[in-house]
Q: What sequence folds into this?
């Protein structure tokens, strides 16, 4: 049994392409070409060169000594926070902009919640001189002003999503509607392992560089490619998909997925999709999602804008359903405490998304000789105001 | 014979009207249906509101949001429709997104449709392949016609495939757009209408998107069997409520 996507675009029973006919030509064009294009030597060469010289890869795998001492285990941090633009998001946008060019597209659209994926998309569009339109919920625009300014400086047009709850879910709806209205010249750069097939697989493959590097870096440092545990936070799930990718079918390696419990899983203000979600369809994919009994999609809550999504990628839904991954839900308070702890023990200010992954060490005991790799998916600069407000700094 | 197929046999161009169930007020569903039939409309699409209607523009989105705020659910819609066949004989189609039907249970949903006298379904985000392999038998068991969409970008090969799976009509989306995004037709649409007309499909075609008045109705039905109006009618309901529906229909026919 494989935990990877099958030829029909499903992970177990999750995935597929539940899209209106208006999107079919675009999605089908991508489906027929993405693997072929990604396998082209010229694509590989350009992708790898940009990852190295522009993004700054490989990102270090850092043995966090003081954190390890505190929790009496061996903790490595995969430093995606050191990438250009400050998170793993750029691995995917580099891949997709090269894909868009080869498909002959000259207009890029994207959705963004906190603005990290929007910035990463605006960045690669500036790099390639391609028009960029980013959809962002009206509420998120108001609370993420620095990232809105970044996107504008990079030449992107930021369009407010005014429908529904005016956050990430609605920004995604607006981007999909734009694609319906512009079916020929436009490529949609989705920011996570969500959406209709082939997006979850394509984004996972662009993020897979993370686990590819972990393998060789661990071999060098520990004499084995296999950690005992991999830990990553999951909103849509792209940093997690990249972290797990090359280990999915290697059951010697345990997988931990960390979701945002918000104010508590049972508080009514949470984004813990695996616990609170049911099977359904969101943004063209069959997966687990938070919804009413009547099938209306509900609004999640987390202090972290990047984990504040009512669904989860179909790969992760399958990892949950099959029990391949252990899912742990972390509250706002636990995450903030662990974020501050990393600052003080290791001199690293993590993104609040990442802080959720770090809080696992308070929840789960590891053995002293366990090798635990945590994806430090993003840096905390963007969250400074949140940290200031929370800790009254 | 299914009421949709009976209607398609009539020697006339058909006007189908879409409205959102429970809009503008929760109790308006049945009065809208009755008034539409009285006004000479041929077919009705009852929109089951959804929180995230991907294929819809602002007008229908807003009506869905309002209907949900009014408390509309699948159960309430079926309850409202339970005696509808005592008073109307017009073909009724439920148009909605797949997730609410999936949560209801596809078989249970189809059974309810059949019980209350709904004749067919339009589910924009249920792909034809998935329908064919997983749900066709259930739809047929309850005598329901499923309607598929085609667009100007749909390839001839795929149109023939969709034609082969269709047992009512084909919903011809007039241009690449969400609902209500464009008004009127240009040369591109005329060419597309001609192309489809020349394919000699088994299923009649009904054109939707971009139709709002007599001119566009005549243009659309020059080649096709009928036309569907959605956003323009929702706007009329927003302004006028349920009472002057005949006046709206008069501007079309």
A:
């Amino acid at each position: 049994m494989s935990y990877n996507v099958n030829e029909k675009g499903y992970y177990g029973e999750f995935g597929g392409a539940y899209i209106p006919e208006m999107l079919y030509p675009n999605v089908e064009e991508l489906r027929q070409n993405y693997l072929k294009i990604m396998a082209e030597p010229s694509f590989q060469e350009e992708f790898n060169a940009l990852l190295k010289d522009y993004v700054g890869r490989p990102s270090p795998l850092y043995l966090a000594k003081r954190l390890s001492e505190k929790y009496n285990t061996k903790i490595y941090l995969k430093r995606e926070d050191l990438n250009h633009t400050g998170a793993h998001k750029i691995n995917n946008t580099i891949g997709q902009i090269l894909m868009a060019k080869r498909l002959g597209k000259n207009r890029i659209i994207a959705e963004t919640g906190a603005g990290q994926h929007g910035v990463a998309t605006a960045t690669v569009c500036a790099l390639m001189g391609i028009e960029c339109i980013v959809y962002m919920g009206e509420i998120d625009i108001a609370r993420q002003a620095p990232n809105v300014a970044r996107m504008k400086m990079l030449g992107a047009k930021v369009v407010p999503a005014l429908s529904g709850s005016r956050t990430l879910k609605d920004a995604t709806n607006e981007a999909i509607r734009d694609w319906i209205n512009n079916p020929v010249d436009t490529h949609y750069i989705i920011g996570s392992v969500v959406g209709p097939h082939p997006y979850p697989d394509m984004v996972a493959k662009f993020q897979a560089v993370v686990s590819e590097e972990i393998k060789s870096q661990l071999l060098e440092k520990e004499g084995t490619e296999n950690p005992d545990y991999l830990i990553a936070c999951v909103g849509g799930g792209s940093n997690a998909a990249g972290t797990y990718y090359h280990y999915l079918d290697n059951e010697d390696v345990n997988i931990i997925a960390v979701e945002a419990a918000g104010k508590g899983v049972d508080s009514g203000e949470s984004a813990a999709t695996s616990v609170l979600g049911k099977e359904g369809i969101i943004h063209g994919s069959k997966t687990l999602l938070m919804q009413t009994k009547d099938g209306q999609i509900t609004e999640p809550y987390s202090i972290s804008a990047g984990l504040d999504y009512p669904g989860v990628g179909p790969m992760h839904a399958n990892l949950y359903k099959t029990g391949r991954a252990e899912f742990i839900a972390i509250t706002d308070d636990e995450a903030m405490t662990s974020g501050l702890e990393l600052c003080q023990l290791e001199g690293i200010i993590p993104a609040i998304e990442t802080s959720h992954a770090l809080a696992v060490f308070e929840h789960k005991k590891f053995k002293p000789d366990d090798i635990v790799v945590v994806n430090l998916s993003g840096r905390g600069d963007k969250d400074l105001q949140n940290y200031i407000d929370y800790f009254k700094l | 014979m299914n009421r949709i197929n009976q209607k398609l046999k009539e020697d006339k161009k058909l006007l189908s009207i879409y409205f959102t169930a429970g809009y503008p007020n929760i109790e308006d569903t049945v009065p809208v249906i009755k008034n539409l039939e009285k006004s000479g409309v041929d077919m009705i699409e009852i929109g089951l509101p959804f929180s995230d209607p991907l294929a819809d523009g602002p007008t229908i989105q807003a009506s869905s949001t309002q209907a949900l705020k009014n408390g509309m659910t699948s159960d309430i819609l079926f309850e409202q429709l339970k005696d509808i066949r005592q008073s109307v004989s017009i073909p009724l189609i439920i148009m909605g997104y797949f997730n609410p039907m999936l949560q209801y249970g596809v078989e249970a949903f189809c059974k309810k449709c059949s019980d209350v006298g709904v004749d067919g379904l339009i589910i924009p985000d249920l792909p034809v392949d998935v329908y064919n392999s997983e749900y066709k038998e259930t739809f047929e068991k309850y005598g329901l016609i499923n309607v598929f969409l085609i667009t100007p970008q749909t390839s001839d090969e795929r149109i023939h495939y969709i034609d082969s799976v269709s047992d009512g009509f084909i919903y011809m989306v007039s241009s690449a757009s969400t609902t209500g995004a464009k008004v009127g037709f240009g040369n591109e649409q005329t060419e597309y209408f001609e192309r489809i007309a020349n394919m000699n499909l088994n299923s009649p075609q009904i054109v939707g998107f971009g139709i709002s008045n007599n001119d566009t109705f005549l243009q659309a039905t020059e080649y096709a069997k009928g036309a569907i109006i959605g956003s323009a009618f929702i706007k009329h309901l927003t302004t006028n409520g349920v009472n002057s529906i005949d006046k709206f229909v008069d501007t079309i026919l």
About this structure: Chain B touches chain A at residues 50-55, 57-58, 61, 65, 68, 73-75, 97-104, 124-127, 130, 148-151, 153-155, 158, 173, 176-178, 181 (CB under 8 Å). Chain B has one domain: 14-252. The longest helix of chain B spans residues 128-141.
